Amino acid sequence: MVSDVHGNSRDLKRAGEGADALICLGDLVLFLDYADHSRGIFPDLFGVENADRIVELRTARRFEEAREFGNRLWDGVDRNAAIESAVRRQYAELFAAFPTPTYATFGNVDIPRLWPEYAGSGITVLDGERVEIGGRVFGFVGGGLRTQMRTPYEIDDEVYAAKIAALGEVDVLCTHIPPDVPELCYDTVARRFERGSAALLDAIREVRPKYAFFGHVHQPLARRMRVGATECVNVGHFASTGTPWTLEW
Fold this sequence. Notes:
Elements: H1 9-12, E1 22-24, H2 41-46, H3 48-59, H4 63-74, H5 79-97, E2 102-104, H6 115-118, E3 123-125, E4 129-133, E5 136-141, E6 144-145, E7 154-155, H7 157-167, E8 172-175, H8 182-185, E9 186-187, E10 192-193, H9 198-207, E11 211-214, E12 224-227, E13 230-234, H10 238-241
Parallel strand pairs: 1-2, 2-3, 5-8, 6-7, 8-11, 11-13
Antiparallel strand pairs: 4-5, 9-10, 12-13
Helix pairs in contact: 3-4, 7-9
């Protein structure tokens, strides 16, 4: 199981070795690597120096300044066309690296409308849907909630909650974002809380699945904790670790 792949196709090719299936919890795209500002769509277009500056502003939570700075860089550039072209190149490489079978959902930086073009035979894309894997029922909900970052696949709380509710009874919950528990949402390096889902937390308490898996928070204060009967697990920042989380049942 992997999440937050962010362009790491090299390790993704080996992630499913010895497993019955690979589960991917989203964020395939690498727009900007906060650990290495030379990697990603943004520095490819505007250079490392500008990437350094926008990371500095975002890390300081000066989002309006970061947005204004970015808008100046994009002036005269067809932003949508440039980003889509770069994302398509990444998707072509990443989807080719997925083993068979793979079950995947979207992250907040993904562009869902492009996935059907790249998800070939053996790759099942799920969002607000259930599937049986190894005799257990897995429910998948992708994307993130609205933030000041305005990443591509952020949705309203009500829409997200409706997708969670549509899953019903499941053995395993698979989402990109964590439940709204402070220890699971706080990033110790970015020094901020990412948005978790209250609806997801409510479902964990009511449905009581055996596991709830997610990613999104790259350096969480707590990687796993129990909420009632459910083991909640951040499966890791695959872009940096290159190591999948293994579920043995």
